[in-house]
Design brief:
Radius of gyration of chain A: 16 Å
Shape of chain B: globular
CATH topology of one domain in chain A: Aldehyde Oxidoreductase, domain 3
Number of helices of chain B: 1
CATH architecture of chain B: Roll
InterPro entries (chain B): Beta-grasp_dom_sf, Mopterin_synth/thiamin_S_b, ThiS/MoaD-like
Protein name (chain B): Molybdopterin synthase sulfur carrier subunit
Structural class of chain B: alpha+beta
Number of strands of chain B: 5
Order of helices and strands of chain B: EEHEEE
Largest sheet of chain B: 5 strands, mixed
Oligomer: heterodimer
Largest sheet of chain A: 8 strands, mixed
Largest interface: A-B, 27 and 15 residues
Distance between the termini of chain B: 37 Å
Structural class of chain A: alpha+beta
CATH architecture of one domain in chain A: Alpha-Beta Complex
Number of helices of chain A: 3
CATH topology of chain B: Ubiquitin-like (UB roll)
Helix content of chain A: 25-40%
CATH class of chain B: Alpha Beta
Pfam family, one (chain B): ThiS
Number of strands of chain A: 8
Chain lengths: 147, 77
């Protein structure tokens, strides 16, 4: 593992559309970039046995998740010629319809950005110790399972 | 020996203790068996252990004062 600083990816609550647009705007000075790829995860109002999900409450084993994310980030930078990569995952409560995951990759040409973005999303979901608790409107809950 | 326990997700709903005093257990296989006997619900679900922030893939020695995390399947994103 390199001695690069471990970045935080966690934000409290939903990720706002204005935060996302500001992130995009910040890249206008990086003129070597020719393509961005963005994945946004949104809390889905699933219906289960007649009850609908009103929010997801996220918790994580934060230390381990950040170490693992650091490792994934290093792997991805080795594998793809990226200019930059930004990852944000919500913790705490995020209501249905709000954004809970924001992955943003940029490269000179589109393919590395697109492929890296997809790989980060897949690996984050499979490898990071994060848990979503689906809260129903009636106060009950169930634990989310990733497909 | 004494170990510190961290429980997450649905496991945190039925394993709420933070410390465990155990004798005669020296590795993660032994600890799993102990935990599944003590908390039968654990044997019904998939979970992984992490010892001192290392996710356990195969049996490993546990030493006194280790921190052991008990983690159900991940569901971030």
């Amino acid at each position: 593992m390199s001695d690069k600083k471990i970045k935080n990816i966690f934000v409290n609550g939903a990720i706002s559309p204005s935060f996302i647009s500001e992130s995009i705007a910040k890249h206008s000075s990086k003129t070597e970039i020719g393509g961005h790829s963005i994945f946004l995860g949104q809390v889905r109002k699933d219906e289960i046995d007649g009850k609908s999900v009103s929010a997801i409450e996220y918790t994580a084993f934060e230390d381990l998740a950040l170490e693992k994310m650091h490792e994934i980030r290093e792997n991805i930078f080795e594998k793809y010629p990226l200019s930059c990569m930004h990852i944000y995952q919500s913790l705490g409560r995020v209501s249905a319809g709000e954004i809970c995951l924001f992955v943003f990759t940029s490269s000179a040409h589109r393919k590395p950005a697109i492929n890296a973005c997809e790989e980060v999303v897949e690996r984050l979901k499979a490898e990071l110790p994060i848990w979503g608790k689906e809260l129903f409107e009636d106060g009950s809950h169930q634990w989310k399972e990733n497909k | 020996m004494e170990i510190e326990l961290l429980s997450f997700g649905k496991i945190a709903e039925f394993i709420t203790i933070k410390k465990l005093s155990i004798d005669g257990i020296s590795d993660t296989d032994g600890l799993k068996k102990y935990l599944e006997d003590k908390f039968p619900q654990l044997s019904e679900i998939k979970y992984k252990l992490a010892v001192d922030k290392q996710i356990i893939q195969k049996n490993r020695i546990i030493t006194d004062q280790a921190t052991v995390a008990i983690m159900p399947p991940f569901s971030g994103g």
